[in-house]
Amino acid sequence: MARIAIGGFLHETNCFVAMRTDYDYYAMGGEFPPLARGSQVIERTKDKPFGMSGFLDEIGNSHELVPLIWGHGGAGGYITDDCFERIVGELIGKLSEAMVTVPLDAVYLELHGAMCSETYPDAEGELLRRVRACVGVTVPVVISLDYHVNLTDQMVRYCDGMAIYLTYPHIDRQHTGGRSAKILKRILEEGIPTGKAVRHIPFLLPLNFQCTLIEPTKSVIEASIAAETGNVVNLSYGAGFPPSDLAECGPTVVCHAYSQDVADKAANMLETMILSREGDFVEPLMEPDAAVMRAIELSKTAEGPVIIADTQDNPGCGGTSDTTGLLKALVRHRAKGAAMCVICDPAASDAATKIGIGGEVTLGLGGKHLVEGVSPYHGTYKVVALSNGRFTTTGKSIPGRKVDIGPVALLEINGIEIVVASKRMQAYDQDIFKHIGVEPTEKKILVLKSTCHFRADFDPISSHTLIALAPGAHIVDPRVYPYRYLRKGVRMLPKGEPFGGPE
Ligand SMILES: [Zn+2]
Predict the structure, then answer these.
(1) Distance, CA 130 to ligand 1 centroid (Å)?
(2) Rounded CA separation 474/96 (Å)
(3) Closest residue by Cα to residue 183 from 238, 142, 137
């Protein structure tokens, strides 16, 4: 029986938004469980959709677990120094305490891999450096990571094994934790891998080019799985999170193996494959008018709705979920039979609820967050349906999640239906439409405020997918980010221009 310390500290940092992520945000919880300490780590993550949950399942009762601290902050602006030092300080403190009387045999940490704190652009690298300094070189450290990891040399240096999600949309969070547990068990039996290889891919991938359901990423993931045999402990691909500002931002390949030669060969194989398909990652990023006109054209002969991803207003990436650029384009081009979700506007859904079904409300919808280029859309809307906004998702992306997006109104203008909610929610599940009486398969065009997660549940019913860049808070094109730390020479898009350094 081994004695394994477990913990986690997760964040996906968008360095180009003004907000900061502070300690209270972790302490209080909300979308995620509040900061967990000691036995709470297990209580709050067991049988849940986290990496830690899968780790606990796979590790079972055969080892002694020493839970430290675990906190999930989702996505947002920079982690404050105070937040980083308090949580990491407590993690290291608990780790040292755990080692005082009885030695530890291993450490497992659930991390995201795209955390930037005010002081440390490579925040997880700094965290792992401190963990390593605490436990020494003989105690294996294994981590699990999000697919959007910006993997750094420092992170690889201080780890002995790692598992990265294989899916985007992410449907294998627990599975990834389980894979980490298997890697850890192997290392406990066979020893610490002696070979490590990391390859930084020389171009950035906007999130829209990262979906694992489509080529070329599908093949890259399949190749990584197939190569995890023999002396290869893990071979992984991470697609990177471009809104994080650090030198090593971008896609990476990483391998741990029982010889340096094996690690290098496996990493080179995957790297070569990615480089040879660089141009295949690119998809058109369309202006709203062009996307709507194309969707109307396609819908004339299409079997199934044409989807327009309103990707720059994806609340999962920091969007306000209330931009109106696509709505304006739909009205402008008379896209009757289109439906859109979710515009978050509590005042509008409240007004609609007061008037009741069949009534009309005249108001400025959405556009309330002073995002550049975004304004409310003024008009008279018919109230088609109302709901309390409580339902359980049944789609393939995140099934079984109990959702409460407050009072919801289905509003209609010029034959275009809009799901207007009181809270933000990414459009990753058909039930957002269905729960209020909209059958998405019967619509000609669906506008979804999502980047990629919608694909798991909507791809099976859609005929085409277009990506539109309406003004929003989540800027997709890395060429417009004011990077300060990004390495010079990395191409800003596949086959694109190299980064010349900060302005
Ligand atoms: Zn992710």
Answers:
(1) 25
(2) 40
(3) 142
For ligand 1, the distance from its centroid to the CA atom of residue 363, given in whole angstroms, is: 36
Q: Separation of 177 CA from ligand 1 center, angstroms?
A: 14
Report in angstroms the alpha-carbon separations of 478 from 19, 203, 269, 488: 19, 11, 27, 14
Residue 168 and residue 147 in contact, taking contact as beta carbons nearer than 8 Å: yes
Cα-to-centroid distance, 225 and ligand 1 (Å) = 19
- 148 CA distance to ligand 1 middle (Å): 5
Ligand 1 mean position to 254 CA, how many Å? 17
Residue type, 75: A
Please give the model's pTM, rounded to 2 decimal places: 0.86
What is the tally of helices (H) and strands (E) in the chain? 14, 20
Closest CA to 373 of 432, 430, 288, 433: 288
Question: What's the pLDDT tens digit per position in 363-398?
Answer: 999 999 989 999 999 999 999 999 999 999 999 878
pLDDT of amino acid 339: 98
Q: How many Cα atoms within 13 Å fall on the side-chain side of residue 277?
A: 18
